[in-house]
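Hello support,

Our group uses your service weekly, and this is the first time we've seen a run hang past the timeout. The protein is PucR family transcriptional regulator. I'm not sure whether the cause is the sequence or the server load. Input pasted verbatim:
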Amino acid sequence: LVERVAQASREARVPALLGSFGPVEVAAVVATGERGGDGAIAALAEALHAQHARQSDLDPVSVGVGAPAMTVLAAGAALRHAQHVAEVAHALPPGRQKPFFRASDVRLRGLVALLHDDPRVQAFAEAELDRLLVHEATHEDGMLELLRQYIAVGGNKTELARVSHRSRPALYKKLAHLERILGVSLDDTDSRLALGVALMVHDQRRSGQR
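Update from on-call engineer: The timeout came from a worker crash unrelated to the input. Re-ran successfully.
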């Protein structure tokens, strides 16, 4: 992998200091030069992805980027941060892949993607959603999708009525039913946060099973 990154660095004409973080990770301190940070990193990342396109037997790579630095020492101190971003990015579903990732690209969804196989995370998601998933399996009345829409609009019922194409009275009746199924108040901020994270874990698990 170090050799692959070195080759990509030469092809992209991006000077870099390379070192191994282990059997599947490479650290790179990149001299951005006149192209600037994003330009140089994009060139290096695209060269790496082109390798995989040319040779399908090569494993795909994910590129995580840390904060820019003015000295090699400062850049070295940021490598662990870049390593975390790359690990999280590599765990994301294929549809969310980009040439390279910063911390702002992965955020909570990326952390969930990285940790979703942890039994404690799975237990949390099951505890939050089990009653709803059982209901959905036996009724198929769209309650799971209604919850997903409710979380997506941040609990804004006016916006939810618009995106779900329901009248306000019909929506309130549906939400009250959803609350009875879940056994929680959807107006509670902590409940919305917990349910939102549980949905991310549930969706990540489903995408991994396809």
